[in-house]
Amino acid sequence: MKRMRLLLVLLTVVAAVVFVLLRNRARNEARIAQKIDVVPTVTVIGVRRGQIDQNLALVGNVMASHDVMVVSETMGRVTAVRVEVGDRVAAGATLVQVDDELKLAAFKTAEVNHEKAQKDLQRYESLYKTSTITDSEIEGARLAAKSAEAQFIAARRQFQDTRIATPIAGVVTSRLVERGSMVQPGMPIANVVDISNLKVTLHVAEADVFKLKPGQAVVACTDIYPGATFRGLIRTISDKADDSHTYPVEIGMANSPSQPLKAGMFVRVTFPSVSRRNALIIPRSCLVGSRRSPQVFVVEQNVARLRDITVGAEVGLEIEVIG
Fold first, then answer.
1. pLDDT tens digits, residue range 255-271?
2. What is the DSSP string of 24-64?
3. Is the Cβ–Cβ distance between 271 and 216 less than 8 Å?
4. 290: burial class by Cβ within 10 Å (0-12, 13-18, 19+)?
5. pLDDT digit string (tens) for 139-157?
């Protein structure tokens, strides 16, 4: 009797559990059916055709148009230093003077010998015309004059090299010697840069390098001067890629007197209208998903249907549809 009662209780519990599960299943199916029946609300926007400009922007390094390390071409002791770091100098200005006493004496001796050889040659030429001297004697006088001239030129150059001058106009950015220092040929003396004109070097990927041409206008900007723009032209485009498969591009631009740039700064260079074409354009907000798998709703017979598309360039809030 007890077994019958226990069995009846178990059957009752199982029946109750089955009933609850079936009821919950029915409710879930009803909810899913309600969600499927919901029609999404879609705002219809017409596509348009228009010109699309794909701008290329890269970060470049500002360099001086002329950057010269002035070196010594003589040996000796520095007797005078004419410039300090930050001084603006003209082309040919003396930066450092080296002891020139011995070289000046050698130059004057060579100058005197050169003048004597030239006068002797003139006398020998007069005597030769009258057949007073032989051919060997006139030939010796000519050779002596040439030798004296060569010695004079060498002595003059050695004397001039004691005055170490800058070959360009610009600003002294470093000075590496002091008064009393000993210098040797090839020893760096000072660095002079000309920043009146600048060049910007940057590296362009192989996918974009063929869109650029020498002489093309560019616009540069920097965080140092918010809102300011600097205009320049592409000078050169390298035909050889570097190790990272990018191509060096050099841009020339004039420095601004009111908002001057300095060598070593970074600027963002924009290449306007690198690629301009007539394209099918839609708002970027129409995309469903990401650019990797873009989709849009397309109206077909008053029904919005989701369709895969292929997108191209993205400019601002618009995007190009290419397929």
1. 988 899 998 899 999 88
2. HHHHHHHHHHHHHHPPPP------EEEEEEEEEEEEEEEEE
3. yes
4. exposed
5. 999 999 999 999 999 999 9
